[in-house]
């Protein structure tokens, strides 16, 4: 039993902090409707001050930030599986956007970015005239 306890908890005491995998963090969902592209990212435990969001001329949304290591005073870790450190995730968009109209909200650890499509790729209703 002691060896099992050491196996479970002993490794974590000496293990290095896990780092974030930039290919997989944050987890994102992306979708579109007729007017906009949307990207939603899970960022639990971060503050607005920890985030930077960019849209490039090549139609790529970049979410950049850092998850800080928690301070542990007067104790020692038994397990540390949450990753910490800087991250940067880029999401190619399927078309051009209007960068001045991009909106971002951050609620309960979820970042939602609304990216209005550029006028040239939005569907246009064509008026049919009778004759």
Structural write-up:
- It is a single chain.
- With 131 residues, the chain is mainly beta.
- Helices cover 10% and strands 34% of the residues.
- It has one helix at 2-14, and strands at residues 28-32, 36-42, 51-55, 60-67, 85-92, 103-107, 110-116.
- The chain has a 4-stranded antiparallel beta sheet with strand order 1-2-7-6, with no helix packed on it. Strands 3-4-5 form a 3-stranded antiparallel beta sheet, with no helix packed on it.
- The longest helix has 13 residues, at 2-14.
- It is elongated, with a radius of gyration of 22 Å.
In short:
The chain has 131 residues and is mainly β.
How are the elements arranged and paired?
Blueprint: H1 2-14, E1 28-32, E2 36-42, E3 51-55, E4 60-67, E5 85-92, E6 103-107, E7 110-116
Antiparallel strand pairs: 1-2, 2-7, 3-4, 4-5, 6-7
Observed structural traits:
single chain, 131 residues, mainly beta, Immunoglobulin-like, 1 helix
Note the overall shape: elongated
CATH fold-level name: Immunoglobulin-like
* Strand order in the largest sheet: 1-2-7-6
Percent range for helical residues? Answer: under 10%
Number of domains: 1
Q: Find the count of extended strands (DSSP E, 2+ residues).
A: 7
H/E element sequence? HEEEEEEE
Q: Main β-sheet, in a few words?
A: 4 strands, antiparallel
């Amino acid at each position: 039993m002691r060896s099992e306890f050491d196996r479970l908890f002993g490794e974590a005491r000496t293990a290095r902090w896990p780092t974030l995998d930039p290919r997989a963090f944050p987890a994102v969902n992306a979708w579109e409707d007729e007017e906009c592209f949307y990207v939603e990212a899970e960022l639990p435990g971060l503050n607005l001050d920890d985030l930077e969001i960019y849209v490039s001329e090549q139609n790529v949304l970049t979410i950049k930030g850092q998850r800080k290591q928690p301070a542990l005073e007067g104790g020692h870790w038994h397990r540390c599986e949450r990753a910490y450190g800087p991250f940067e995730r880029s999401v190619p968009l399927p078309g051009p956007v209007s960068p001045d109209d991009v909106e971002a909200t951050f609620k309960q650890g979820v970042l939602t970015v609304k990216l209005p499509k550029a006028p040239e790729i939005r569907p246009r209703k064509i008026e049919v005239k009778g004759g």
